[in-house]
Design a protein that fits this description.
This protein is an all-beta fold and about 120 residues long. About 0% of the residues lie in helices and about 50% in strands. Strands 2, 4, 5, 6, 9, 10 and 11 form a seven-stranded mixed beta sheet that branches.
């Protein structure tokens, strides 16, 4: 059975940092591009970052470039998002996502498996 679990969310002041982690089991990890989506109240779910199945191609939402860093460790079936210089507008539920195949997609419809989400709240 496929399980995808995120952790690492929390409450942080603006300018602070958080590191999100995701583990996936019950699948061949490197068969999937993986990334992070986020959804704030009243807004559409948006792609934050994604890396291809072998980690060689990485994309970031423009608003998080140079602040967030995505990484994956296929040997450990883990994905991480280091979030620095956090801003209040980063506040959202963050979801770990496994895409349908090894290549990233920017839309939620490209996702095959979702984690349950972890809340990130950035105070002013």
């Amino acid at each position: 059975q496929v399980q995808v679990v995120e952790s690492g969310g929390g409450l942080v002041q603006a300018g602070g940092s958080l590191r999100l982690s995701c583990t996936a089991s019950g699948l061949t990890f490197d068969d999937y591009a993986m990334g992070w989506f986020r959804q704030a109240p009243g807004k559409e779910r948006e792609g934050v970052s994604c890396t291809s199945g072998r980690g060689g191609t990485i994309y970031y939402l423009d608003s998080v470039k140079d602040r967030f860093t995505i990484s994956r460790d296929n040997a450990k079936n883990t994905l991480a998002l280091q979030m620095n210089s956090l801003k209040p507008e980063d506040t959202a539920m963050y979801y770990c996502a496994l895409h349908t195949g090894r290549w990233c997609g920017s839309y939620p419809g490209s996702v095959k498996y979702w984690g349950q989400g972890t809340q990130v709240t950035v105070s002013s």
